[in-house]
Structure formats: structure tokens, C-alpha cells
Please model this.
Amino acid sequence: MKNVLMMILIVGMGFALGSCATNEDVVDVSVVDDLEEQLDYEKTQVFSLTEEVDKLNDSINALEAEVKEKESTIIELEENVEMLSSSQNPNPLVSEAFDVMEMIANQDTTGLNAKVSPTEGVRFSPYQYVDENNHIVFYQNNQIPNMFTDPTTYVWGAYDGTGEDISGTFASYYNEFVYDEDYLNPEIVGINTVVSSGNTIKNIEDIYPNAEYVEFYFQGFDPQYSGMDWRSLTLVFEEVNDNYYLLVVVHGSWTI
Model:
């Protein structure tokens, strides 16, 4: 009898334990599905962020390479300027360019009149793309001597970004697109070398393949613009019988 009771108790406990184990092993399938969906979403986010990081790294590497190239160019140009400024290494082109820049700064029309090409005149380009068909040309003895007092309104080109006409007298154009900075005292001088950067096509050498040019360049003025507020003025010359004559005055700035 005792053995029978024992067997009944053991069997009863087995059923009880089996029932408890079954209850504990029950899992809500919907919770699992939600977790799997969340996991898939997080994996997608990680993949997307990884792609974005890779793109940013590529951009950073490209910018670093560009900065290194610019730094190398600037160092080379600074060394050239230091060398050319030495009395032992005079450069007639640089000397001529500074003489003409001084005349521009002082609005010396008499001096400029003698420096302008007697056959080509001098072209004024508001941006670094020289438009030989539309940019205004002033001629020696005719317009140069009186250009600061000339009341004529000219269309000098089109404003970058808006496309609106750059319209006004030479005096107004001069203030905005010729001597808008102290180019007589530049940070860097480029000799037959384009110092400035930007997306404007620089076609001086295409339009004037036999000319020489000097760029008077400022790297920027306000640190918040990271150099995008750079400015330059480039003087383009042709050499005739050992004399340099001014062909083009090219203003440079960041364009869209």
C-alpha cells in the first residue's frame, strides 16, 4: 500500500513539474517578430551609416590632397616671390606688373595710357573667364585718359549667380572689379601661374597663348569663410620689342 501511494505521489509530482515546465517554455511569438524587425532595421541603419562614413572619408582624403597640393604651390610661389624680389634676380615682367598696378591704384591714367597695348587696347574681365567677344575694351589715347570721368554706362559682363548685367561707368566698375582690394600689397604673387582656385574656367592662356601674366592674390579675409572670400587681380601683358604692354585686367573671386 505504501508503495502504491509512493508511486501515485511520484506520478503526481511528475505531472505537476511537467505542467510548470510547459508554462515557463511558452514564448510570445509576436515579441520575437518585433525584435527581429528591430534588428533588421538597426542593421540597415548601420549599413547606411557605414556607407556615409566611407563617402565622408573619401571626401576628406580628396580635400586633404587638395590642401597639400595648394600648400605646396603656395610655398613654391612664396619662394619664387622672395627670389624674384631680390636685387640680384630682377624680373622685368614682375617689375612691369608692379609699376602698372601702382598706376591702377593711383588712378594714373597718363601712365596707364602709355602702358596699354597700342593695337589691342586693354580688356576688362570681371571674372577669370575672359570673354573676348563681350568684355569691354578701352583703347589708348581714346578712352584711357578720361576713363575715370567718362559718364558712359557700359555692360561689363554678367554677375555670377544671378546672371544680371554688370552695368555702370568705368569708375563704378573700377571700385567693384578692379581695385576692390589693396593689390599693390598682395599676399602672394603668381608669375605665369594661376594661384587662385574655384570653378570658373581660366582661359587666359587659351585666348592669349603668347602673353605673360602676373596674379596679385589674397587668400581670404574672414576666417569663417575658410578662404572662399579670396580675391585676385591678374594683369596680362604682351611683349613687343622688349617692352611689355597691358592687354587684360582680370578680376578674380569665388564663383558659384
